[in-house]
Batch of 2 targets.
Target 1
Amino acid sequence: MQKIISLCKRRGFVFPGSEIYGGLANTWDFGPLGVELVNNVKQLWWKRFVKDREDIVGISSAILMNPKVWAASGHLKGFADPLVECKKCHIRLRADHLKESYNNQCPGCSGKDFTEERQFNLMFKTFIGPVDDEASTVYLRPETAQGMFVNFANVQNTTRLKLPFGIAQIGKAFRNEITPGNFIFRVLEFEQMEIEYFIEEKDWEKTFDYWQAEMKSWLVDALGVNPGNFVIREHEKSELSHYSKKTIDFEYKYPFGQEELYGLAYRTDFDLKAHKLSLEGMVPHVIEPTFGVERTILALLCDAHNEEKDRVVLKLKPALAPYKVAVFPLLANKPELVEKARKVFEMLKNDFTAVWDDRGNIGKRYYSQDEIATPFCITCDFDTLQDDTVTLRDRDSMKQERIKISELKNILSERLL
Ligand code: ATP
């Protein structure tokens, strides 16, 4: 885990939040490479689950909502973790984590004496207007789901979709998490990619199974995650959220242990009923696949991180790699090589996310690109000046081949699929 965190910081995937002021616990910022990876994941998800389908449409709803939403959805009452406090060092912990992860011993001072469990609501509060009193309290949404439920009628009226159909959204959610961290695994502010899929009650089991298969295929086929690195676990009755009749978690084997990556829940008709929404006299039921962006990024980084004999290589699928191709002049101090390589770079950069590198020697540049997952490197050398060919080097096989500049675009397009 330390190796991944340090690579993320060193190469610009993820920085500690507010770092120059000593940081802010459980907040992180995505850097230049991180934001490319995040955008690639989100675009792939949106294409697969919204654009390529006729039965799902997207929305983007506001983070701040009328507090009545959270009263109706049960979050004001039920969205709480049971907390205990160590009587010696006053650290607060989730009661379930104390038992499962810390063997009833305080991780701060090894004390064993704790207060009784107390419910702690995870929603962040803020205020609208100049007065911070109860009447002006609003909440930062703790899930994107409610934005889709309260827009159910608007979406159905404007699209005229018939059951079964879904609403999808990618957006920020906020939770005042107590138990810290593990890098970007548990953060205060994160993004969810969520679908509310509306069905008739009789169809819930088959729809649940369908979405379980879809989620698995997203992980394995779209993201290229090794199927041996995650498991599917069904929630015990006692673990189920207040709205759910059946939930499964996709758990990834992170370096710090096997933990939730995604969830799939049968939310029944709980939410639409709570908001008094119906369709042609009946209240649809809901299957909800939910995908956390930060946990996707963390799973991808863990999954793709390979240490080979003399290199570290991030074997992300080309579609996810922040840069698709790096272009180098063999020598940075030969203007004719630099000029030729710049031409190749300019030619490619409109079609592919390309990066220029002329520091150090070729070996170092390959090492540097392998570490950030760049699938292809192109070098212009003295032969290029004679015959308009370049060396194309493949990240995974490390094979190098001579390619005509005029064929580069076609070859890259084919191989980057
Ligand atoms: P956990 O049990 O780990 O607290 P949860 O069961 O409360 O998670 P859900 O309410 O199912 O999580 O949230 C849906 C998805 O949002 C999760 O599967 C996860 O990918 C993501 N997620 C939830 N909480 C966080 C968080 N604090 N930081 C990052 N991602 C999160």
Note: Residues 32-51 form the longest helix (20 residues).
Target 2
Amino acid sequence: MKYSALKGARDIFPPDIYIWQKVEETAKGVFSSYGFQEIRAPIIESTDIFIRSIGETTDIVEKEMYTFTDKAGRRITLRPEGTAPVVRCYVENYLYNLPAPQKFFYSGPMFRYERPQAGRFRQFFQIGAEAFGIEEPKIDAEILSMLKLFFVKLGLKDLNFELNSIGCKKCRPDFKKALLNFFSTRIDRFCPDCKRRFILNPLRILDCKVDACISLREGAPRVTDFLCNECREHFDTLLSLLKLLNLSYVINPEMVRGLDYYTRTTFEVKSETLGAQNAVAAGGRYDRLVEDFGGPPTPAIGFAIGMERLTTLLRSLINHTIPSPKVFIATIGSTAEKEGLVIADRLREKDIWVEIGYTGNSLKSQMRRADRLSADYVLIIGDDEINSGKIKWKRLSDGSQGEIPFQEVYDFFK
Ligand code: ATP
Ligand code: MG
């Protein structure tokens, strides 16, 4: 019997893990300099939380959620995204009583029952950030420049930032009316899902991935033409701030995003080299979500970065810097072997990575292993060394070697 990972779920292990760790460290560093603090919400939540926030007629809720009933009959869902759980946590713990803005970041696995393919998995990882309590577009600009800095620090300088504003509760109805008007003459040619969306949530037709629907919606009204004065001004101010910060963008008036909770600013960061699944990060404002969850009116904005797509981009860019031990202790004979074990332990107390040889390995095979591990130094201990009280050392990079008294070995690697 041989087991394998579930379809669409992947193992991450060395050397790939070093890219993941670099991404996580970079995110933590950059996000901290913008004042974002880490938050960890559970991976399981009540199903309602996602239905209410992401929206009943979205692909995620209709087709992609991992939902099950637990032993007590509760409906539970493995989180398909990170924003709803963070908002739930924010409201449940009265974090809105703290001075605004409250800024958080998270990272971890998300689950969607999608058809596995390049850049699309059933368990995938996101790093995301959410900022609560500020309406002014200055924070939109900060969020976008934070994202940009994060990518630049990883060596990704030419990703495309696509922006849009999808309006608010005030201007959305006019846009919806215009959409209904446009689609009413041709809806019979759309896919069955879109026919349903036409009745329930016409905006979702704009997010349909079916080729026929994509071409049928050519010439559809654009949300940017229906923005109310406040939304228009909010968007224009954001754009001017982005110019000030030297962040180049393109406006994509067709981008509506696949989740219902978005308002005003939406954005995606795309790569030209990823193929069909080319969005590395995506996000936007969700000014009404906190209120929908029972909190006070609280504007908010956030994004999520797709780790698998990002690490795909980085794999060809970052040289796999596989860490290597500082010291390899090769021993000959049982007395030396014990001595080596003690020295290794004492060096490790000083945070030095030490590898040792194991019983039955000849000196030659131990040296070969030291070489393969790219150890900086090899210490050689045999009967001669025990008798003379000195250890032989060898630096593998240049072949230099010498001797040190046993007691001085700890200072030698300081
Ligand atoms: P897509 O356009 O790929 O369907 P989405 O709009 O469903 O993306 P979001 O929910 O906004 O994606 O998630 C943000 C990011 O998370 C995406 O830009 C992508 O990088 C990543 N992502 C989303 N779904 C998956 C998945 N199934 N597998 C891997 N990464 C994913
Ligand atoms: Mg999707």
Note: The pocket of magnesium ion (ligand 2) is lined by residues 258 (CB under 6 Å).
